[in-house]
Amino acid sequence: MGWALRDYSRTDPDEVCRYVDAMGPALPRLTQREACKHLG
């Protein structure tokens, strides 16, 4: 799931940030890290 979010963050970074923030601790840390890898 992390790599999918990471790829999607290239086209819609704001939506990925909102999703990660909304899910919070329900997402594993690795998924959060991968999702935010290319976000400033």
Regions with little confidence, pLDDT below 50 for 5+ residues = none
Return Rg in Å.
Answer: 9 Å
Tell me, briefly, the overall form: globular
Distance from N terminus to C terminus (CA atoms, Å) equals: 20 Å
Sheet/helix structural class: mainly alpha
Mean pLDDT: 90
Count of β-strands: 0
Proportion in β-strands: under 5%
Instruction: Please give the count of helices.
Output: 3
Percent in helix:
55-70%
Element string (H = helix, E = strand): HHH
Biggest pleated-sheet summary:
none
Describe the protein's architecture and organization.
The protein has 3 helices and no strands. The chain starts with a helix and ends in a 5-residue tail after the last helix. It has 40 residues and is an all-alpha fold. Helices cover 62% and strands 0% of the residues. It has helices spanning 2-8, 13-23, 29-35.
Brief overview:
By secondary structure, the chain is an all-alpha fold. The protein has helices spanning 2-8, 13-23, 29-35.
Write out key terms for the chains shown.
mainly alpha, single chain, 40 residues, 62% helix
Topology:
Layout (H helix, E strand, L loop, with lengths): L1 H7 L4 H11 L5 H7 L5
